[in-house]
């Protein structure tokens, strides 16, 4: 039995508004949706709403654990209503398509870092990057003599030399080029 979204908000102590309900429904209908796309969907449903109001509603829903915010490097934040389980994501490097995949098999994703640097770790995320089936097919049918927008970006083969060198054990975050 599905719980009415308004009842779900009330159970969490969240004031029920047309905007929050519309935002919640937009995320439920289209998993991995961006805030801009949420705003478009909400405008189609209830009319005018500012992007700031959409961000405010998303923030409340994320804080209460009703939706999940996914932030991957180089991409806008995306939102989904699949919460409360340990699932991961597959993301196409070409078109950005994002899909859910159940927890990794084999060794469990580690929540105990070799050196936690004093952090209280409560979550580990796994993101698989590659090409979706549609982009693989598109690349296969593209003529090699013509440039294709569906070719994967080239990975840097040599390390960057334009900044201070940081030992890998000291690196806390940053893009993986």
Task: Report on the architecture of this protein.
This protein has 177 residues and is of the alpha+beta class. It has 2 domains: 1-84, Arc Repressor Mutant, subunit A; 85-152, 2-Layer Sandwich (Dna Ligase, domain 1), CATH 3.30.1490. Helices cover 30% and strands 12% of the residues. The chain is built from 5 helices and 6 strands, in the order ααβααβββββα. The protein has helices spanning 5-11, 18-29, 35-46, 51-63, 133-141; strands at 33-34, 68-70, 78-80, 88-92, 98-101, 127-130. A 3-stranded antiparallel beta sheet has the order 1-3-2. A hairpin with a 7-residue loop joins strand 2 (68-70) and strand 3 (78-80). Helix 2 (18-29) crosses helix 4 and helix 3 (35-46) packs across helix 4. The model is unreliable at 146-177 (pLDDT under 50).
